[in-house]
Amino acid sequence: MEIAIVLTLLVIAVVLFATEKLSVELVTLLILIILAGLRIISPEEAFAGFSSDFIIIIASIFILSAALEETGILDFAVVRLVRLAKQSNNLMLLTIMLITGVVSAFMNNTTVTAMFITPLVGLSKRINLSASKLLMPLAYAAILGGTCTLIGTSTNVAVSGYIAKAGLEPIGLFEISGIGFIIFVVGMIYMMTIGQRMLPSHADQELAEEYKLQKYVTEVVVLPDSPLVGQLVFASDLTTLNLRMLNVIRSKENFLPDFRTRIRANDILLVEGDVDTLMKVKETKGIQIMADALISEDLETENIRLAEIMITRQSNLINRTIKEVEFLRRFGLVVLAVSRHGETLRSKIGSITLHMGDVLLVQGAPERFEQVRNSNHIAVLDEFEPVLFKKKKGLIVIISFALAILAGTLQLLPLSIAFLSAAVVSILLRAISTEKAYNAIDWRLLILIGGMTAFGSAMENSGAADFLAQGIVDVMEPIGGRTGILAGFVILTVLLTQPMSNAAAALVVIPVALRAAMELGADPRSFAIAIMLGASVSLVTPFEPACILVYSPGKYRFLDFIKIGSPLTLLLVVVILVMVPMIWPM
Predict the structure, then answer these.
(1) Are 552 and 497 within 8 A, CB to CB?
(2) CB proximity list for 471: less than 8 A, separation 6 or greater
(3) Which range, 7-11, 85-89, 378-382, 474-478, has the best average confidence (pLDDT)?
(4) 137 neighbors 93 (Cβ within 8 angstroms)
(5) Residue 220 forms beta bridges with which residues?
(6) pLDDT band for position 87 (cuts 50, 70, 90)
(7) What is the number of other CB atoms lying within 10 angstroms of the CB of residue 204?
(8) What residue ranges are annotated as transmembrane (predicted)?
């Protein structure tokens, strides 16, 4: 009975993670409550994952990554190194992937990707190269670079913590560096050759044309006898028709209205709405429609500009609607459209719930863009403006980071204490503020990892791990022996990472794989390391957070990731199945 309950909860979790009907952390906590309520796990087991040292390691890495970003040292490195590579696109791409991979070996890959997107989009515009030629290689390099060390990705840290809890030796800081380096090099060669040829190239377009605003925006002239005269722009009769006010042209001056602006006679209002609504507006008394199509010059003037901004990983706008966050009042920018996963959203802008990686087409005064450029919540995707390089504080963070790695490698301190010390030093010496340090931590990820660790205990306690392990052994052993069984687990992990996060998928499969390895008399650590690496090389779809971040800025289609990522994933799975048994004999 308990096996059926645990497996049913697993299926429900996979479906909810995939559909995002509920946030991942809420799903995780609900599963913990059910498992503990049914006494499949004890309260101690339910919350043991949250008190593990690997949670401290992951949180500390987030803080150190944010401190490096805050000091501007990464921007400084990008500017210097990319300048050297500008003599050829191939050399530039190789340099970008090398930089990203090296940095990602010691930082969370999603964080690394997020930090490099804005510089690369700005660079692509300066050299007239489609951003799609740079951003997918960036994301893949960040993901694969994370396989080179224990701290390169939260999945590695979580798996190491789980197997240590199971009584096995935890993974060393550089134990996987050899195979990680091979995986990274294979991925880089693939992207420099086969992958580069398949990368899409998008012709540069005016933003208004690219988002097809002409079909949805028109000019309305307010006649002297119009009842609109004297009404507030954002509370006028036109807004009751589901029209959105964009600009006001008054006496040849084009400006953005605010909440106090009143309509005057002969004003020209730039309004946005669906086609049916715009047709109804033509019948409204006291106005005259100037044009059914709009030229982009009306949306961009000397005092008003269009730009794209991206919702960042740590943004507090995520899972909130544009209306809820009062976007115009807060940032002084008007949202005209939202690009998400290759789809442009233009209808009912205010009710659109924002997601990480969404790209918003916005309109505003140039000074407004300067004010929000250093925001933690949105990133302006235009000309790259490096953060002021704070050399002294940057060196403090680098030295603290390096000493933590050294102390952990030589086992002078436990890894958790070493990295926590480095994070605390960065805060004490004001390389990053306490508030920014808290905001830098991905609490959703920590809850997910802590909760799925407890789910692994539930699979063991209920017998679900034994049940699944025996099933996989019975099916795969006649086909390929131990290697075939290992292949079955790695492929299962790759498949589960599509609806689930990499760490969650690995933590679900690991208990089953450890049981299977014990039944076969094989080394459980070999299975655990192969599954951990399999979770990190799953590039079939763009559901990995690093890929989600580059999806919209790169103007990719879903098929682009499948076409380029599937062969690479298959190639890397083969590398894992060949190399792991050689390095960690089964």
Answers:
(1) no
(2) none
(3) 7-11
(4) yes
(5) 269, 289
(6) low
(7) 11
(8) 54-79, 91-117, 138-159, 171-192, 416-433, 445-465, 485-514, 526-552, 564-584
Amino acid letter for position 184 = F
310: Cα separation from own chain's centroid: 11
Neighbours of 343 (CB within 10 A): 10
First to last CA, the chain: 34
Tokens of 384: 């790259």
Diameter over CA atoms, the chain = 90
* 213-294 topology per CATH: Alpha-Beta Plaits (3.30.70)
> What pLDDT was estimated at residue 295?
46
> Residue for token digits 């459980």?
524
Q: Cα-flanking dihedrals φ and ψ of residue 288, to 5°?
A: -140, 130
Task: Give 81's contacts (C-beta < 8 A, 6+ positions apart).
Answer: 95, 99
Tokens coding 470 = 């025996």
Three-state SS for 270?
A: strand
Amino acid at 50: F
Provide DSSP, 460-496: HHHTHHHHHHHHHHHHHHHHHHHHHHHHHHHHHHHHH
Query: Residues 519-540: what's their mean pLDDT?
Result: 92
Residue with tokens 């009710």: 351
Give how far Cα 70 sits from Cα of 59, 186, 214, 395, Å: 17, 32, 39, 12
CB-based contacts of 197: which residues, under 8 Å, 6+ apart?
none
Say how far apart CA 322 and CA 328 lie, in whole Å: 9
pLDDT at res. 576? 96
The structure tokens listed for 158 are 């979580």
Closest CA to 296 of 219, 397, 244: 219
Helical residues (DSSP H) of 166-319, grouped into ranges? 177-190, 196-198, 207-210, 275-281
Hey, is 305 helix, strand or coil?
strand
491: DSSP letter: H
Which sign, positive or negative, has the C-alpha torsion 241, 246, 249, 250? positive
Helix, strand or coil, per DSSP, at residue 38: coil
Strand partners, 362: 307, 335
Domain(s) labelled CATH 3.30.70.1450 in the chain stretch across 213-294, 305-364
Q: Which of 281, 306, 305, 304 is nearest to 291 (CA)?
A: 281
Question: What fold does the segment set 305-364 form as a domain?
Answer: Alpha-Beta Plaits (3.30.70)
Q: How far apart are CA 473 and CA 368, in angstroms?
A: 61
Print burial letters for 127-141: b (CB count within 10 Å at least 16), e (below 16): eebbbbbbbbbbbbb
- C-alpha dist (Å) from residue 505 to 17, 159, 383, 437, 468: 11, 11, 38, 28, 15
